[in-house]
Amino acid sequence: MKLFKNRMILGITCIVISLIICFAITPLINVGLSKKTTVVRVNREIKAGEQLTKNMLTEVEVGNYNLPANVYHSIDEVNGMYATADMVMGDYLFPAKLSEDAGKENTYLYHLNGEKQAISITIDKFARGLSGKLKSGDVVSVIAPDYLGSRETVIPQELQYVEVIAVTAKSGYDANLENGEDTEEKELPSTVTLLVRPEQAKILAQLEAEGDIHLSLVYRGTTENAAKFIAAQDTILDEIKAAEEAESEEGSMEDEEEAEQENSDPEEMSEEE
Q1: Cβ atoms 42, 75 nearer than 8 A
Q2: Residues 6 or more apart whose Cβ sits within 8 Å of residue 167
Q3: Cα separations (Å) of 207 from 28, 36, 215, 253?
Q4: Phi, psi for 30 (deg, rounded to 5)
Q5: How far is it, in rounded angstroms, from Cα 127 to Cα 17?
Q6: Residue 251: Cβ within 10 Å count
Q7: The pLDDT of residue 106 is above 50
Q8: d(Cα 220, Cα 53) in Å, to the nearest integer?
Q9: Which of 133, 173, 174, 263 has the fewest CB neighbours in a 10 Å radius?
Q10: Helix/strand/coil (H, E, C) string of 155-167?
């Protein structure tokens, strides 16, 4: 009889536990599993160094269960940031994959298309590089004392608006970024890398070899506004190039006319006279 009672108690206990699991715990688990949240995914292949735009991104609703806490939930959070790693369609976005700085991990060097080049100039004095305050994305003017031996300090037309893509310390790490270690101390800049057209690169190389270079900050802000300054500089470069080509063509025509006159028959010239 005692054994029967013990079995009854055990059975009733199991039934109670089963009921608790079925009607209390299981619904809570189901609610957790069915809870939805919005996350950001990429809708195309993205290479390291590319700047994210809204047309590359999609907000999708997914289950919240087992989702990493640091995933981005809104396109506005990541719009305009830069990829620090290659991504494929469907990848979620995390802080480790993105950077607000275009120059992180030298990704800016992997996307040169031949139209523009990256060239570094030396900042041998602290003041010449805006006291270490320059950063990637800034638009600067290049000031040249004693420009081409003229004894005048000028801003060459070709270098009025130039984009900074990196500021680098002597160690080789970008000076306006963490150097890969957990430290709050940042190194002073030694060189500034600029994004330029070939004709600008030649002038910068000459200035680097012959004289001093100072950089003055023109603009720091949104990528869209910075692009307006660079577009204005490209227009100036195109005008200079067109003027040089026109002058060269005019010189060629004059040379041809002179050659024709020299090669003309002296007898024909005398008959005309």
Answers
A1: no
A2: 103, 129, 132, 134, 135, 136, 174, 175, 176, 189, 191, 192, 193
A3: 71, 59, 12, 34
A4: -65, -40
A5: 76
A6: 10
A7: yes
A8: 20
A9: 263
A10: CCHHHCCEEEEEE
Residue of 187, 209, 171 whose CA lies nearest to 126: 187
- Long-range own/partner contacts, residues 225-228 (CB < 8 A, 24 or more apart): 226/137, 226/138, 226/139, 226/163
Domains and CATH numbers, the chain: 32-100 (3.90.1210.10), 110-238 (no CATH)
Cβ burial 198-231 (10 Å sphere, 16+ → b, else e) = eebbebbeebeeeeebbbeeebeeeeeebeebbe
Reported in sequence order, the residue ranges of 181-251 that DSSP labels E, i.e. its strands, are 189-196, 214-219
Among the residue ranges 5-14, 80-89, 153-162, 180-189, the one predicted with the least confidence is 180-189
What's the rounded mean pLDDT across residues 1-25?
66
The one-letter amino acid code at 144 reads: A
